[in-house]
Sequence to fold (168 residues):
Amino acid sequence: SSTHDKNDSYYTDPAIAQLVADMVETMADAGGVGLAAPQVHASLRVIVFFVPPQRAADPEAAEGTSGGPVKLTCLINPQIDPLDPAIDEDWEACLSLPGLTGKVPRWRRIRYRALSLAGDEIDREAEGFHARVVQHEIDHLDGMLYFRRIRDLATFGFVEEVQRAKSH
Ligand code: NI
Fold:
C-alpha cells in the first residue's frame, strides 16, 4: 500500500479505537447523546455524539443532513464555524454535571470539519440540536463546561428545582 493509505493513519491506532469504544460505552451507560475525550480523562481532541430522530430539527430529513438525525459519529480534531450570527437558547445537561440543567446560547447553524475514526474527512453543516450537541462537546475539548455560557443563572440548577420554578 502507498504511504498515503489511510490504514496507516494515526487515527486507526488501536489505542484511539479503544478510547472511542470506551467513550461510546460511557455515553450509553449514562443515557447521553454526546461525550468528549477529556470526560474520560484522555487529553485528545476526540468527541462522539449522535442525534436521535426525536431530537432532529427535521426528523423526516435524510440521515446525516443538516437538520436530520445523525447516527453515532466520532469527530477527531474538529473545527467549527458559525454559518450566520443567529443564536438559540435551549436546555442542556452534561454527564460531567450530574442532575443539573441550564439554558445555553449556541450558534443556530454551524459548519464543522473533522476526521473520522477511519481517517476520512468529515465536512458537514448542522442546525438545531445537531449544531448544539457538537458545540457542547467541542467546548469540552477546551475545558469549557456549559454553565459558563449561561446568560441568566435563574435558568441553571438541579433539574427538579428548575422544573418547579418553570411551573410557577
Ligand atoms: Ni457535556
Q: What stands out?
A: The first strand starts at residue 34 and ends at 36. The chain is about 25% helix and 30% strand.
